[in-house]
Design goal:
By secondary structure, this protein is α/β, with parallel strands linked by helices. It has seven helices and 17 strands. It has two domains: 182 residues, HUPs (Rossmann fold), CATH 3.40.50.620; 130 residues, TPP-binding domain (Rossmann fold, 3-Layer(aba) Sandwich). Helices cover 27% and strands 26% of the residues. It has a seven-stranded parallel β-sheet.
């Protein structure tokens, strides 16, 4: 028996934004290996109502592992529930998002299964029946290709670097309720606190509006928020290390080597000089737009589009143009209908 498994995150009864991309990536690999694709999701009882929808992205079967103690992420609980399913499945590959949760869970799972872990993948392919993982290294200056001689190949994916499939039919759903004893776990989760204010996490967002020290202070972040709102609900805010260190923005928004590594479809770097530490976290973005008043800023060397000028003049005008284009497109659609 062989196959490709996607481990899907859920939060509060809803799938994480990475779910579609991770399952789609698993489906692509499974298709090239001529094998099946499955998904596993852990959570409380409410998640099973949505599980079949993962078939849209290619999953043929979804195993829902449900238990009250799995309502929120707990590393001991998730490991105890996953190990027998993943270890007994004889999968060719097991994939999960390189999110905060995935980065915590994947190394633990690799240790339990005694397999290598390939992290932060931005590409997957199959060559001669072997799954090849590609990822940027040396601050994005080179690309590493790697595989594993031990099954299953275990990898975390930068979900925003993968395209979601569509058009699939509802998946078969199997519900499992394991016997779990939270009292036996050495770790206790005492509280959960959300800092995202309802925006996509910077590591999962397909559009990021990121600001640097050039914005002058936290009181000027309104122009960034204006651009983010104009771009739509798929956009979120990011920040450079200097901004976070100064206390202007929360650490959850930090992009860079000591923050989060991102691969969005579109990345705006506003008032960011382009230090190596920051470039290491966003260099693999699909399209990079840099706005900076310093024409010699290093960020322009990696940008696809660069605008030299005052961000406080350019960003509001850019937001206005985006809103205008959206309104024009909506009007044209209305007339066509």
């Amino acid at each position: 028996m062989s196959g490709v498994l996607a481990i899907v995150e859920e939060h509060g009864g809803s799938f994480a934004r990475s779910a579609g991309a991770v399952v789609s990536a698993a489906a692509m690999v499974a298709s090239n290996l001529d094998t099946r694709v499955e998904a596993i999701v852990l959570g409380d009882s409410g998640v099973q109502e949505r599980a079949a929808s993962l078939g849209t992205f290619g999953a043929r079967k979804v195993t829902v592992v449900t238990h009250p103690v799995l309502a929120s992420y707990h590393p001991d609980g998730y490991l105890e529930a996953l190990e027998p399913l993943v270890g007994d499945g004889e999968y060719d590959a097991v994939l999960l998002a390189a999110s905060d949760q995935g980065k915590d869970l994947a190394p633990r799972l690799a240790a339990r299964l005694d397999v290598p872990l390939l992290q932060e993948a931005t590409g997957l392919s199959v060559d001669g029946g072997r799954v090849i993982v590609t990822r940027p290294v040396y601050a994005g200056k080179a690309v590493l290709s790697a595989t594993s001689d031990v099954a299953p190949l275990l990898a975390t994916l930068r979900a925003s670097a993968f395209t979601e499939l569509g058009g699939g039919s509802p998946a078969e759903v199997e519900v499992i309720t394991p016997s779990l004893d939270a009292e036996a776990w050495p770790m206790r989760i005492v509280s959960h606190r959300s800092t995202g204010e309802g925006l996509p996490d910077v590591s999962e967002a397909s559009v990021i509006v990121s600001g640097g020290r050039g914005l002058g202070g936290p009181e000027h972040w309104g122009v960034m928020e204006e651009l983010r709102r104009a771009l739509g609900p798929e956009a979120t805010l990011g920040a450079s290390r200097a901004v976070v260190d100064a206390g202007w923005r929360p650490h959850s928004e930090q992009v860079g080597q000591t923050g989060k590594t991102v691969s969005p479809r579109l990345y705006f770097a506003v008032g960011i000089s382009g230090a190596v530490q920051h470039l290491a976290g966003m260099r693999t973005a699909g399209t990079i737009v840099a706005i900076n008043k310093d024409p010699d800023a290093p960020i322009f060397k990696v940008a696809d589009y660069g605008v030299v000028g005052d961000a406080f003049e350019i960003v509001p005008r850019l937001a206005e143009e985006i809103r205008s284009l959206k309104e024009s497109g909506a009007s044209d659609s209305g007339r066509s209908a």
